[in-house]
Amino acid sequence: MSNNHIEVWNNCLKVIKDNIAEQSFATWFEPIRPVSLTDGTLLVEVPSSFFVEFLEAHFIDHLRAAIKRFIGPTGKLAYKIRMDSSDPSYTVTLPSSNRNFPKNPIGRPAPETLSQSPINPFAIPGLKKPQIESQLKENYTFDNFVEGDCNRLARSAGLKVAQEPGKTAFNPLLIYSGTGLGKTHLCHAIGLEAKRLHPDLTVLYVQAEQLYNQYATAAKNNNRPDFIRFYQMIDVLIIDDIQFLAGKTGTQEAFFHIFNYLHQNNKQLVITSDKFPTELQNMETRLLSRFKWGLTADLQMPDIETRTFIIKEKLYLNGIVLPDEIIQYLANNVRTNVRELEGVMISLMAQSSLNKKAITIEMTQQIIDRFVRNTIKEVSVEYIINIVCDYFKIPPEQLSLKTRKHQVVQARQIAMFLSKRYSNASLASIGQQCGKKDHATVHHACKTISNRLETDKQFRVMFSDIEKKVTLQS
């Protein structure tokens, strides 16, 4: 057996990659780095303890088989968790398969002066914790938050936070996405579950705009300390749409004190944003750095499978049965976001009830055209290919060539991705038109583009330019 930890881990990765989904491999295995191989124990470095928990819950069999194959039957795996790559002291080593993780196994190590509960500079001796209305919507639960590849990481992290608020490695939990993809629903679900499991905790959901208005009133009335004290009493604080505080320096300053006190006292913070933290403009650097202390997870546009599940869940809750062809029509033609999809369904059910007519494809089409403004009409795969090839200044015929030239491969993959999103063509049909490829190649291309959109800002800008040209078709 080899004693080279890098070689051993790379061999393990090759085996694991062949046995799990590409997206799962990219998310959970590519960030791992081998550290050492000593006495049959392979030490690897992972970004957080959440990685450890997720790996051991979902991929332990793959890990065990690979370790035994390349180290031997007595081989072991250990994890080194790093929160801040600039400081080697922020690490902890855990044995593989150890489910009894220590509370707060990682995190920003506090100085000796903070080893006990931090002193609240705004506290008033003898002030009792008030009864606070949580402002949570009872119908936004985990049970009716449909899980899919587009939201699995954020949902799993949110559930863990609700189960152990303030005691996991992802504090704060920052969730970001575009409009209507479920940020608010997930926030309320976290709050409701935390209240159910921990009725003694004070949970509060507040929109950032509301936070700003409260601060403005407090500042006007010269009782800013009272405003800060109030929020420092919360055990689980959920701030929705934090981007609203951009440029509002006074509120940011107050929230900085609130954040520090809650975090140091192991209180849970959940924050949502419409952008990745580094893309937020006019936010204090010290706040942005604190947002990165925990876990940042995004919600993506749901794929057709997830949209189908959402429709079926909504129908089930309303006691309505629809033919599969109408469900598929809805899933194929309302792609923008979950909120829009639910709005179409509500209008469809209301129209059917008021007019006492059965729901048909024709009625569904009329509702979609009326409800979804700027509806993107179906475009052909050929049209998309022409748009993409024109952008890259290559003839469409080149997509059919057997070449590894980066520009051609990239153009083909983008054409496949956009064809899946904006046409009703099957994967097999898309593959045939994009270089006579099979449906598996199209599936791989779509995952590749999706991954690049998540991780490559420059690529996102280029892709957005191409997508706009496709959607401008009349």
Describe the overall structure.
With 474 residues, the chain is an alpha/beta fold. The protein folds into four domains: 5-95, GMP Synthetase, Chain A, domain 3, CATH 3.30.300.180; 152-298, 3-Layer(aba) Sandwich (Rossmann fold), CATH 3.40.50; 304-371, Helicase, Ruva Protein, domain 3, CATH 1.10.8; 381-471, DnaA protein, C-terminal DNA-binding domain (Chromosomal Replication Initiator Protein Dnaa, Chain: A), CATH 1.10.1750.10. The protein is built from 19 helices and nine strands. The strands form two sheets. A five-stranded parallel sheet has the order 6-7-8-5-9, with helices on both faces. The protein has a four-stranded mixed sheet with strand order 1-2-3-4.
Write the layout of secondary structure elements.
Elements: H1 5-17, H2 22-28, E1 33-38, E2 41-46, H3 49-58, H4 60-70, E3 76-82, E4 91-95, H5 152-163, E5 173-176, H6 183-197, E6 203-207, H7 208-220, H8 224-232, E7 236-240, H9 249-264, E8 268-273, H10 285-291, E9 295-298, H11 304-317, H12 324-333, H13 338-355, H14 361-371, H15 381-392, H16 406-422, H17 427-433, H18 439-455, H19 457-471
Parallel strand pairs: 2-3, 5-8, 5-9, 6-7, 7-8
Antiparallel strand pairs: 1-2, 3-4
Q: What is the number of independent domains?
A: 4
Supply the number of helical segments. 19
Structural class: alpha/beta
Rg value? 25 Å
pLDDT < 50 stretches: 83-127
